[in-house]
TrEMBL record:
Gene Ontology molecular function, alphabetical: starch binding
Basic and acidic residues composition bias: residue spans: 135-147
InterPro entries linked to this entry: Alpha-glucan_binding_chloro (IPR052495)
Keyword Transit peptide set for record: yes
Organism: Spirodela intermedia
Gene Ontology CC entries for this record: chloroplast stroma; starch grain
PANTHER family for this protein: INACTIVE PURPLE ACID PHOSPHATASE-LIKE PROTEIN, PROTEIN EARLY STARVATION 1, CHLOROPLASTIC
GO biological process: regulation of starch metabolic process; starch metabolic process
Domain of life (superkingdom): Eukaryota
Comp. bias (Polar residues): 125-134
Main location (coarse class): plastid
Keyword RNA-binding: no
Lineage: Eukaryota, Viridiplantae, Streptophyta, Embryophyta, Tracheophyta
Region of interest called Disordered, as start-end residue ranges on this chain: 102-147, 412-444
Name this polypeptide is given: Uncharacterized protein
């Protein structure tokens, strides 16, 4: 690792929320799931010298409210029922959606299952049964920090199993796998099940390294309970040196899913974050959920090139088995105070009728903003206003933050390399360009 990775100093990790949730039926179903609140522009930035937020670009101008110039025909009753209404007293980029609260599965503990005690540590002392957390991951919690997992790998091989007083069984294993190019994987597996097999859990931890400087820390867990609820979760943290830029990179990711055993309900989430030592950052998430006759999706992304250019987007939509569909999406691009925002809110009714409202903003960097838009009900506007431009030119959580919260990853010790032996480096294809939009966008 060259001087570009000199920021890899070990530091304390921050804590995140515990992992314990599922889904239940509710009387009145809101329009969409608990959202990431993907309105990145509304975050409060830290203010430094001069009174301006760090990493935020302002283009001063007289503030002016957004006003519609044209007035179309009367808004339909269906449009009045639209939950993702654009507030014309505010910038249209601040459109928000109705949120679905966190919906836990009812997960009553079977009487035959062992009572869980403190989860950490699992691998010590020896000859005692590991304790399970037989609850699913929690929705919309993003990527946990490494300290929240309490990964504690032994330096020796273990192969143990046993039976508890209530008839439930458990096992614990650990070892080391070796491979070419200095590859080393230290791992631990543990699990258990109730006496009748109706409740079960498994968990695996690992740390990997090789002579190229690659390091990886990871967790995978899955389980089910007596009610038939099942879940799966994986978490990874990776450090490597990019062979094209010669910069140190850290990538973090998490996948989570849960499924109800008593009703048609479940959800899935994929989160990722990528950082390099010069400020390049990419973040995103894909989410899906279903509760009886309603399904919903959400995708969002952020990309910072480390030189002031920023791209953000989000796309959310939902549908019912009766044929109704609705959604909202937006995108913004900025560099040096100049950029644009655009978006659409839409609704398709069971009879096939469609309503939509599109909007856009052009920011010229001189205190002038061009705002325009229209809807299928006859609304239209096209105006230039004096308005301040605000956007985040830097991520609120960047390279220094992720290094400070990755002390266990950075402390992984690779195998000793013999004299005269050099790592084999595979450059592979050049890095892909950042996505400008979701893999699969809303059905507009």
């Amino acid at each position: 690792m060259n001087a570009s990775s000199s920021g890899l100093a070990a530091a304390a990790a921050a804590a995140t929320a515990p992992w314990d949730v599922m889904i239940r039926t509710i009387g009145a179903l809101p329009l969409l799931p608990t959202s990431h609140r993907v309105d990145f522009r509304t975050r409060k930035a830290r203010v430094g010298n001069g009174g301006r937020p760090r990493g935020v670009v302002f283009c001063r101008g007289d503030s002016s409210e957004f006003r519609k110039l044209g007035k179309g025909k009367a808004v339909t009753a269906a449009e009045k029922a639209e939950e993702w209404r654009l507030d014309t007293k505010k910038s249209p980029r601040r459109v928000r959606m109705q949120a679905l609260p966190a919906l836990p599965f009812p997960s009553r503990r079977p009487r035959s299952a062992s009572k869980p005690e403190d989860f950490y540590p699992r691998c010590s002392p020896r000859n005692t049964a590991p304790q399970s957390r037989d609850t699913p991951p929690k929705r919309d919690t993003g990527i946990a920090n490494e300290k929240d997992w309490g990964i504690n790998l032994l330096n020796e091989s273990v192969n143990e199993s046993g039976t508890n007083e209530d008839g439930s069984t458990w096992y614990r294993e650990s070892g080391v796998d070796l491979g070419d190019n200095g590859y080393q994987c230290r791992w631990a597996r543990m699990g258990g099940q109730s006496y009748d097999g109706s409740s079960e859990w498994k968990e695996m931890w690992w740390e990997k390294s090789d002579w190229t400087g690659y390091k990886e820390l990871g967790v995978e867990k899955l389980g089910k309970n007596a009610e038939g609820d099942s879940w799966w979760e994986t978490w990874q943290e990776v450090l490597y040196q990019d062979e094209w830029s010669n910069l140190a990179r850290i990538e973090r990711s998490a996948q989570k899913q849960a499924k109800s055993g008593t009703e048609t309900a479940g959800w899935y989430e994929k989160w990722w974050e990528k950082y390099d030592a010069k400020g390049w950052t990419e973040k995103g998430a894909h989410k899906y959920g279903k509760l009886n006759e309603q399904s919903w999706w959400e995708k969002w992304g952020e990309h910072y090139d480390g030189r002031g250019s920023v791209l953000k987007w989000t796309d959310k939509w939902a549908e019912t088995e009766l044929g109704a569909k609705w959604g909202d999406k937006w995108e913004e691009r900025f560099f040096a105070g100049i950029g644009s925002r655009q978006g659409e809110t839409w609704h398709v009714f069971p009879n096939g009728d469609r309503w939509s409202r599109t909007w856009g903003e052009e920011h010229f960097g001189n205190g002038k903003v061009h705002k325009y838009g229209k809807s299928t009900t006859g609304e239209s506007w096209d105006i230039v206003v004096d308005e301040e431009t605000y956007y985040e030119a830097e991520p609120h959580y960047g390279w220094a933050d992720v290094v400070g919260n990755s002390s266990q990853l950075l402390s992984i010790q690779p195998r000793e390399r013999p004299p005269g032996v050099y790592p084999e480096v595979d450059f592979g294809p050049p890095p892909p360009q950042p996505e400008d939009s979701p893999d699969a966008s809303s059905p507009t």
